Amino acid sequence: MDEVAAQIIGVDGRSLEKLHLLLKSASQNVLCLPTSENKDPLLILNPSAHTLGYLHILVARLTQAQADPAVALDAAAIFVDVFDRKQVNIAPEHMNMFGQAIFRLAERLQRPLAAIGILRKAILRWPESPTFLTPLHPILFKACILAKNYNAALPVLSVDISEVQPHAYNLRVQDFLLHHYYGAMLWIGLKRFDRAFEFLQLCITAPASVCSFVQVEAYRKYVLVSLILLGSFEPPPKYTSAAVIRACTSSLTGAYTDFAQSTKSGSVSRIQQSFVKHHDAFAKHRNLGLAKQCVQSFNRRHVQQLTQTYITLSVADIAKGIRNTDSAFEPPSLQRGQQMETDTTLEPDTIKEVERLVLRMVEENQVYATISHRDGGMVSFHDLPDEFNTDETATTMDEQIRKSIAISERVSRLSKEIGLSKDYVSKTMQAELIKGSTDRASATIVATGGPGGPGFGPNFDDEMQYEFDSPDDV
Prior knowledge:
Elements: H1 2-10, H2 16-25, H3 28-31, H4 41-44, H5 51-63, H6 69-82, H7 85-88, H8 92-108, H9 112-125, H10 136-147, H11 154-157, H12 166-169, H13 173-189, H14 193-204, H15 213-230, H16 242-248, H17 254-262, H18 268-277, H19 279-284, H20 288-307, E1 312-314, H21 315-323, H22 348-363, E2 369-372, E3 378-381, H23 391-420, H24 422-448, H25 460-463
């Protein structure tokens, strides 16, 4: 270990690649040894000046079963505060191993919170821009989910990823999929269903020749989130891979497709029946809570429909409208300001539950209303109070304009970079050549009435099969 430490300390900037190869070939047991003077090499090395060597030793230490967890976590916390980005970029695979080791160590200690701060700091300091994806992103998100600390991920989660460099950051397709899948779960936990919908859509529409099981899981949540957000199922975009579409319309997602179909009727009773029917499937996939929110969201939509017709209603009248489950509920054709006939057969618990629903909707600014118990529980609906003429509104608008300009500039730059990329040009030319050959071959088959007819190969059934990779992370 003395020799390894001496080489780490004595290396110059031009020899870092050689040092990296040397440390990669070294035994993990050797990297975990103390010096001949029984000193910890992590206490001898400077994590800022000797980042590369410190990282190799730290990863070896974190993966060693006998390592002291507290000491290892303290060393990791020091490292992410001061590491040199240039040296880390020489060993991106070791940064990936570092993140995984930190997560496993915190999981073993049943302290997922211990990993969050370290991983978040590493992500904020490692890439040259916050818009770059790293393999640490999905690890951080998973740690936040396990810790049920969704807000802790916001500094990273709220930044849209626009740069994916597989070689520079040792990325796999799975990292991209899990980043958006776990990110969507965090947004769901934060009740930001609009952002969850975007993340799930990005996961589903990732180019693929075969479907990943992560995408199937994302599709299941995508169906439920679209029902909550939009009130109906939004099919995936047309550019979604055919392999993903086949998998997501198979028996693997049958319960979700059936549940989405039940919502088309607008009947709460049918939606509830479908929910009960597929209860076990939702529970098996750990989507039961999300499915329950779908049912609740339709009750909320009924309340919102009433605000478009009435100025004042009793809580009992609102409950009657929600309870009307034999067919799709439609607001009665009465003049705005009139009341529905109160149904006195409703249970008191039902009326209290509806009152709580209205209060939650008021708190979340889904409706603007007040409830007067002096008048027997009358709900008065109001127009949107914000006239959008405040300084805060102007500041928000200005911020959104700046963001839009920045996104436009980023898209233009990326388009130019891709257009000049050798890989893009060569693949585009190859695709054009293949398309030309295919068109000529198809024309020949159609003209000659070739075997099987146009569009069907001899192994059509085999061609329709799809494969799934089932990552341990999901």
